[in-house]
Amino acid sequence: MLEEGSPGQDAAEETYASQEESIEKPMSLNEHRLNSVVGALKSSGAKTVIDMGCGEGKLLAALVKDRDFSAVSGMDVSHAALERAAQRLNLDRLPAAVRDRVNLIHGSLTYRDKRLGGFDAATAVEVIEHLDEPRLAAFERVLFEFAHPRNVVVTTPNAEYNVLFTGLACGKLRHPDHRFEWTRGQFRLWASGVAERFGYSVHFTPVGTEAPAVGAPTQMAIFTVCSRPTKVDS
User: Fold this and answer.
1) Domain covering 7-225 in this structure, CATH number
2) Which residue among 104, 105, 114, 133 has the highest number of C-beta atoms inside a 10 angstrom radius?
3) For 144-196, how does the pLDDT look when each residue is reduced to its tens digit (9 = 90+)?
4) H-helix or E-strand containing 48?
5) Gap between the Cα atoms of 182 and 43, Å rounded
6) Cα angle at 34 between 141 and 98, to 5 degrees?
7) What pLDDT score was predicted for residue 22?
């Protein structure tokens, strides 16, 4: 998921994603991550879910297969990513009853959009690290203030774990488009601030096998609404 969806960036994103996957593949981290997110959503009782920055639709495919989820939507800024998601989901060949449960939305994650409202839960899986840090505030308001689902699941790399990836040079990020990769402390500080500002509680779960001193390769925050935010001017 790149923040802008030009053809050149779409091609670069596909290449970068392959590079990141090759780094994480030996531990099947992507599969573990998706299973952890699905598990968190099921535990929350969510029936309708929007995946923010859905990319090529791997999480959407897992959710569509599960009858616990009655409506599944994915938003991405990249037209090419949405086309790949449609292919992965076989949208043109799905039975009507299944097809009616799925919706793909083209849009930016940093602009208020009424189509994001009304979902039980939202996910942002390996998304925030693709945003320039100054734009995180806009993303936070779009998701936590305006859309304000009951539950939000966010995952992001744990920068401390990077030293254990044999295919990753010292000091390099896992994906060339990552704007940052946070330590566990940095992620907790950000997520706790978001929860406080927008009326959520939050708890943290490691994803992947934890290693001494550096933790797990992926960190996950699960937000649950505990109050309505103060109304702001449009």
Assistant:
1) 3.40.50.150
2) 104
3) 999 999 999 999 999 999 999 888 888 899 889 999 999 999 999 999 999 99
4) strand 48-52
5) 26
6) 85
7) 57
Backbone angles phi and psi of 206, in degrees to 5: -75, 145
Tell me the three state secondary structure of residue 178: coil
**Residue 234, pLDDT score:** 39
Residue-level pLDDT at 233: 43
- The residue with tokens 């992947």 is 208
CA pair distance 58, 64, nearest whole angstrom: 10
Q: Distance of CA 166 to CAs 17, 59, 109, 172, 183, Å?
A: 17, 27, 33, 12, 19
49 and 123 in contact (C-beta within 8 Å)? yes
Identify the three-state secondary structure at position 204.
strand
H and E: helices and strands count for the chain: 7, 7
Predicted pLDDT at 15: 52
Which contacts (CB < 8 Å, 24+ apart) does range 194-198 have? 194/140, 194/144, 194/223, 195/223, 197/140, 197/144, 197/229, 198/140, 198/144, 198/145, 198/148, 198/229
Cα separations in angstroms, 13 against 21, 61, 97, 149, 202: 12, 20, 33, 28, 30
Q: What one-character DSSP code corresponds to residue 208?
A: S
Q: What is the pLDDT of residues 45-57, one digit of tens each?
A: 999 999 999 999 9
b/e map 56-67, b = 16+ CB within 10 Å = bbbbbbbbbeee
What backbone torsions phi and psi does residue 139 show, to the nearest 5 degrees?
-60, -45
